[in-house]
From TrEMBL, chains A, B, C, D:
Name under which the protein is recorded: Gfo/Idh/MocA family protein
UniProt-listed PANTHER family: BCDNA.GH03377
Signal peptide coordinates: none
Domain Gfo/Idh/MocA-like oxidoreductase N-terminal: 17-134
Domain GFO/IDH/MocA-like oxidoreductase positions: 155-300
Organism: Nocardioides aestuarii
Keywords: Oxidoreductase
Amino acid sequence: MTDHPDLPADAARETLSVGMVGYAFMGAAHSQAWRNAPRFFDLPLRLRMRAVAGRNPDLVAAAAARLGWESTETSWRSLIDRDDVDLVDICTPGDTHAEIAIAALAAGKHVLCEKPLANSVEEAEAMVAAAERARPAGVRAMVGFTYRRVPAIALARRLVADGRLGRIHHVRAQYLQDWIVDPEAPLSWRLDKDKAGSGALGDIGAHIVDLAQFITGDAIASVSGRLETFVTERPLPADHHTGLSGAADTARRGPVTVDDAAAFIARFRGGALGVFEATRFALGRKNAIRIEVNGSRGSLAFDFEDMNVLHFHDGDDDAATGGFRRILATEAEHPYMAAWWPPGHLIGYEHSFTHQVVDLVNDLAAGGDPSPSFADGLQVQRVLAAVETSSDSATWQDVTP
Amino acid sequence: MTDHPDLPADAARETLSVGMVGYAFMGAAHSQAWRNAPRFFDLPLRLRMRAVAGRNPDLVAAAAARLGWESTETSWRSLIDRDDVDLVDICTPGDTHAEIAIAALAAGKHVLCEKPLANSVEEAEAMVAAAERARPAGVRAMVGFTYRRVPAIALARRLVADGRLGRIHHVRAQYLQDWIVDPEAPLSWRLDKDKAGSGALGDIGAHIVDLAQFITGDAIASVSGRLETFVTERPLPADHHTGLSGAADTARRGPVTVDDAAAFIARFRGGALGVFEATRFALGRKNAIRIEVNGSRGSLAFDFEDMNVLHFHDGDDDAATGGFRRILATEAEHPYMAAWWPPGHLIGYEHSFTHQVVDLVNDLAAGGDPSPSFADGLQVQRVLAAVETSSDSATWQDVTP
Amino acid sequence: MTDHPDLPADAARETLSVGMVGYAFMGAAHSQAWRNAPRFFDLPLRLRMRAVAGRNPDLVAAAAARLGWESTETSWRSLIDRDDVDLVDICTPGDTHAEIAIAALAAGKHVLCEKPLANSVEEAEAMVAAAERARPAGVRAMVGFTYRRVPAIALARRLVADGRLGRIHHVRAQYLQDWIVDPEAPLSWRLDKDKAGSGALGDIGAHIVDLAQFITGDAIASVSGRLETFVTERPLPADHHTGLSGAADTARRGPVTVDDAAAFIARFRGGALGVFEATRFALGRKNAIRIEVNGSRGSLAFDFEDMNVLHFHDGDDDAATGGFRRILATEAEHPYMAAWWPPGHLIGYEHSFTHQVVDLVNDLAAGGDPSPSFADGLQVQRVLAAVETSSDSATWQDVTP
Amino acid sequence: MTDHPDLPADAARETLSVGMVGYAFMGAAHSQAWRNAPRFFDLPLRLRMRAVAGRNPDLVAAAAARLGWESTETSWRSLIDRDDVDLVDICTPGDTHAEIAIAALAAGKHVLCEKPLANSVEEAEAMVAAAERARPAGVRAMVGFTYRRVPAIALARRLVADGRLGRIHHVRAQYLQDWIVDPEAPLSWRLDKDKAGSGALGDIGAHIVDLAQFITGDAIASVSGRLETFVTERPLPADHHTGLSGAADTARRGPVTVDDAAAFIARFRGGALGVFEATRFALGRKNAIRIEVNGSRGSLAFDFEDMNVLHFHDGDDDAATGGFRRILATEAEHPYMAAWWPPGHLIGYEHSFTHQVVDLVNDLAAGGDPSPSFADGLQVQRVLAAVETSSDSATWQDVTP
């Protein structure tokens, strides 16, 4: 009998100690990633999940035990103050991102910040400035647009980068959910502008803006959009909850201060025409992130409800046998997949978070700049802001460069 | 041995004599409908395909023989002048619709006019006025938005009308083709603003505007749109051709004067948010008319590339067994289908034209008003005009009521 | 004004005069084909739909008018006796095929005979012998396995013939319907062994046997099968009906004497392993003819419920971008499709019958042998007979060569 | 700062200490399950991953570190001898299952044994006897047919158990892979009858036999089958490898002693007709476990390549709106899913292993009998044996009850 440590111990490997702020839905997904990354990928750094921070001592203690963190803190400031934390992983609502990230960077901690980068362009700009100030000292910052790490999406990006699509003419992207179609669904923090910044636009629209720019390698230059709030008043939650659901207090109602849905058309710098739609009112669509890109040489289509698949039309195929290929992106030749199971054995939602950790850790070890950067997050924020302004003014808006 | 006439001869049935103008793609589809309708449906009128008109006597004679018309005329005016023609079926390019239709209506002929109703709002208004003037004398006018008669689409309309979708929140509609992605595709009449009026917007965008309004039973109130011409100059056609394809004269080039693609967002009068896109540059998509409607009780999705299927999500299904139903609209219970083949035996593109004839003939026999009316066609035209104005002015535009 | 005949009149073209026996479901489909073929295809012979035969004078007269036949006969013998009939098209139940076909061939008429060729191997052998006797005089015989003429299926055959699949390892084919799942569905002639010969096996199993052999270009060598009758007694039909449905006389019941479902495994001469299933009890499947073929270089998959599509996996694609291609078989490059509509405009069930007429007429004009021949029909019959024997004896059975 | 243990520490909870034998593909999947189960599910026992056993000390040490096991053993016997191991998880090739499982049970250890239960009916019978001997002492045994724990599959079982399908008429099941289509793929242990017992039949056919019996709640009574080996000789592996792939030693060749593909038809005790096919030669299909069940009231269809989806046709839906529902089995109302992510966030292959651990641990804590039992595994083995005998004898075979 021989005893072994819990994690791959390589004396030659340096340790990256992680502290996480927040432990709800995103915290659970990030924890799973920190735990799993070294089990499936050969990482250049040894990971330690040092501490998780949350205000309620009992809840954070329970979360630490469940999610696998060594210790707890009851404030994000004390987490940042710890010498044994190298990286701060921010999984709190958007209104807190700027303050935590800027403090962490100033304290010399790497930062992984959940999307949206912030609730406003101003906050996001401050965060980019903080990241730039910290960078010379080797401190790195990354924003968590995890869907980039879905293998089928990463493959899509690779095909565009390889020129397989040619000149891009069209991007159409939708993020469709349905969790508040019921007008009696309670007024959660995600429907409160002060907490969430915006509604469908910032929460899920942000993802398709990032994906569209990531896959095409291009940026949105101008937009015309419209925000809608179909249900303007809702019952208050029965108690303070932070998640996606919960009971309603039917006696008291409050105003919905964010958009239920957002739609906009866009022009990309390279001339492509984009059509975007984000909604929480698409009954029957649960997490349908759909993106289709049409170029002069090829086309791509993706739907997260079938996330292991990328559809690819190669315009070079002859007319009689051409057609969209259903690529099951589970081969060793596909991004990230050599580390997982044999071909045809699917991966799920949380694996993208693991890939995010893998890429981040590799970049940190190599001294590279992890991607997407805070500047990428800011660019997304600027697109969202332009959509809001456009909706308010009923005019096209340029995205501030 | 007993001899029988070629068509169902019912002495008690009156005859409707039809004259058609134009015999290209649309003329072939309409002829197939006039020939087939009485073979599969029990019509209240006996149909005669009296005459087809076209400028070139040889070509029109060949077309008459091929398509089944009894005689030919070399001008639409002489067709209208014939006493033995009760209905004029207009299958020519859009720039001729107004003149022919107004003359035919003035001559007391019923009119079936291919879409778009006209190339401008002004022409369309004049046509509506002509239809109103003719109506008291029992003369009827119809515009040919045939996709309404795809059984799956007609079923979609029925479900909305029956309240199965509840309040409509979203309409997303796309009409995707790819036939001019190649920058060397020749400059056909469909790329010439004088002939075609507009490009993708009027040619195929018109269809999804009509379908969206038909299925929801609502009208588009305002729009913000963008037209794009990706390839601004093309080789001239090697010879005068009128169809969709043909060889190019690579030595000479001319300007493309219409849009290659159009996208717009819209608000419906009832509060729904619409997203529309029409393009001839979606490589790999051949005739993908896609429309999805999300309501508070149910959702619908359709794609013409699988035209016998309607996807329907019934929000009343319990959570564990709910999901989009793939309705194969080939049952006798589905619109129009009792006349065709057993369940599971699909119909094709041209059957919708047959259904259009069936509905039109039934309406004429009953003295009813065929639908879609010229006023419906005008409303579509006004939406398209608002999109163009919006694209030019970079502002939202109301659709003139 | 110029008068034109009803059909393309080319004085240089000879006329092929057709007589049809039977006018139910198959008769309607065949009539549509005879009417349509010259409208869309340039045929070397001029077609005349001379006469249709049926026992009931009133019904056959109504059918003639509706389906477009010039005259009627009340017996198939008198039809065959007519000098002005060149080809006899047999659309009656299987128990009459042999007698009619043999008589027609002996009278020097070409024969197009609906599938199954006959209700027994003996009858089918006699028909093949009759066809062979008639052949030296230029008389031709064809059996109507129309699904071969679905463009996607014809494309599948072409890909195999071109070597794109390599060595064939697997064929899996299903023909799934559900029209008698209800145990109270009446006992139609199709459930009567004397009339129909067999149940699901002969009616629909015959089609997938033919398709499997056609696509692979190989023949089934041996089988092991099982027939099942899930509902052994049913109410008698309320009246004599010949179609697929009708009311039941709930007071009287009779035995079901054919199989409700048939399944068998097979070895092809070339070494492929086949799995076949035909059933009328697959609830929710209406006319699902599914066939998948796996070879050493490529794979194919087809489902008639999406009949314009062929799925093709090209094993030569690189691992990262390989996947089943959804080929929308509506391009001019696809079999038969240049004659119809632009790409993306689907065709339906009945178009395959038109293609059958086109191929038959071309073969007759060229003096060629139309395919599938009566010998092909006999081979299918032998496979079905081997399945029945196997089911009875619980052993593998060779297919008599 | 507060320190926390690595796993949820509940003093009131007893500990279940696990030892695993084997650490290749299955060992990695099982380890992931042992690690994850307590992170997402509230388990009645505290889990410890005590030790992993393997012959090579260096490799097993590396595996322990990577997979999260506290210690190592270099023989399965020493693992079984340890007092601090309560449960032995067997992840080795099938030829070792019987010996290890019987010894572990005799030593009073619970056993989780990967499928197939054994390489022969005799071994499986001995294992069942050993499980029965151990049971009175509270020792439990389970065989790892993990696909039962795919939520969509568990939902399928629930629907059948609830009577939503009515009387079952048809089961058609396929397990399609393509990893040895290339005749130059090396002769791995999975192609060696001594190691693997059988080829496609036992490796993947076992899964669809189990799934068919599980979903229907019925048992296969008799079979007629055929095994095929398309490539009878292959290059030897370049070195000893145990996984699915590896380089070939092109100079030396050896015989393939197992089946490449297996097909069989079956009768269930309840009268249903089954059609089964398992192959490693279905080019383009990677891990396509497809099962369709048709009953008198409803139908089900599943494909593992889209594993989060169950298609369900409810025969009680009215004819106009009926159709297969695409149920995205990611709702809290679906089996196991409340523990994971919000609706629409997919899970992957390995999650079924986690569910297996959850069910097993719950059963152990409650003193229940985990399912599938060794007797269930034996029944599958008997079906496979009957298929082999049938293939050898070319006759139908009853499955020994």
